[in-house]
Amino acid sequence: MQIGDRVDGGRAIVAARRQDAEPDTEEIERLAAAAGFEVVETVTQQRQEDQTYNLGAGKAETLAERAAETAVDAVIFDGELSPGQYGDLRGLLPAETRLVDRYRLVLEIFAEGAGDERAEKQVQLATLEYEFPRLRQTAELQSMSSFTEKGSPVYDVADRIDRLRSELASLSDDAARRRERRREEGFELVAVAGYTNAGKSTLLHRLADDLSLSDASAAHDDESVTANTEDRLFETLETTTRRATLDGRRLLLTDTVGLIDDLPHELVASFSTTLDEIADGDAVLAVIDAAAEPARFRQRAQVTLDVLAGEAATERVVPVLNKVDLIEESTLAARRETIRELAPEARDPVAISALAGSGLDTLRERLLDTLPAAELTLDLPNTGATQQFLSWLHDHGSVTTNYDGSRVTVDFAAQPSLVDEARRRATDLTDDDPVVEASTPGETAATDDAETSP
Known about the structure:
This protein is α/β, with parallel strands linked by helices and 454 residues long. It has 4 domains: 101 residues, Rossmann fold; 58 residues; 197 residues, Rossmann fold; 79 residues, Alpha-Beta Plaits (2-Layer Sandwich), CATH 3.30.70. Helices cover 41% and strands 21% of the residues. It has 16 helices and 15 strands. The strands form 3 sheets. Strands 6-7-5-8-9-10 form a 6-stranded mixed β-sheet, with helices on both faces. The chain has a 5-stranded mixed β-sheet with strand order 14-11-13-12-15, covered by helices on one side. Strand 6 and strand 7 form a beta hairpin. The longest helix has 22 residues. The C terminus is likely disordered.
């Protein structure tokens, strides 16, 4: 297999090591299945990391023996292997057995989901950059001078990396332009983020204007619902965006690619729009599976909150404890306390069941309080131009109007940039200052749409 090639699936043994506990291989086995592998055996070990093989020498030899006896196509290691560990462990395995660590496996799954030319090239680049030092390590028996000779494998890969970087630089960032255009149209952006299979897609269906759960399964695992609510492990790199209306405010909710533990998110950030959607969002719903067993809940909550803390301001993140219909009140209280411990600066978590529909009103209120808001009260002449302006206001925020003869008083609430634009447009309608009162951005809830005729 050439560097950067697809790993092609097949029969595999999963190997895992943890220092503090016996490894749980459920997640890596699901990742392997998502990449097309059939896991036929697991080899695990609880011990500190060995600098040579990661596993202890004896366990590494056992792994190699089992790979030979079962004639598997690949050994999948649950974790990152350093270039040295990769080369040494690869040297123990049968020549025809591929060695794939967790990071390389996830890159393979992302390759399946790359939906356009830009994403495909970004996946290729990330894969080459990840495998490049491992290529050097496995080729170390050759002289160092031959590594850099023209035509050598290392030189060829370096050339491919440079070429891909150049090609990507020339491609436009359609996602960024699309987000900017949506803001100009008056939409506020909300990212629905969280660990994979936390229930993000189901929540999107609950909140969106144009989706329902009528076609969803009764199971909590998002893998079991229809295509529109699937949240499989990295099923796709394509984010899903739907419209929602919250107390007169127009939102775009984006269901982002699921996060996962022990993954260099800075590596995948180059080809996933997920972190960009989070960073650019006016608010972020951090969805966490509250029904997971305690150790797994803590680990997944930590991953989710750590990643979001690196991309979004704390005040914009709303922790959402999902699937609370599956746990007792005492367990929910413990989950809340864990969130407060992991992220003391974050907002208080909201408890919901996206599938059952409970807690959603509270979540909507919290989201409304989180979105940046500004208000403007205008005194305008009741003219045709003003009526056209009112139509624009209704399209971009929450409006209350009051007519008094030849005048109309307008209360407008929206995101700060749109309030600024409304102020500018209103100035063109009258020779006088139309602004009666304006508020600065803050946690001001917008009013319901209402209108009183003269």
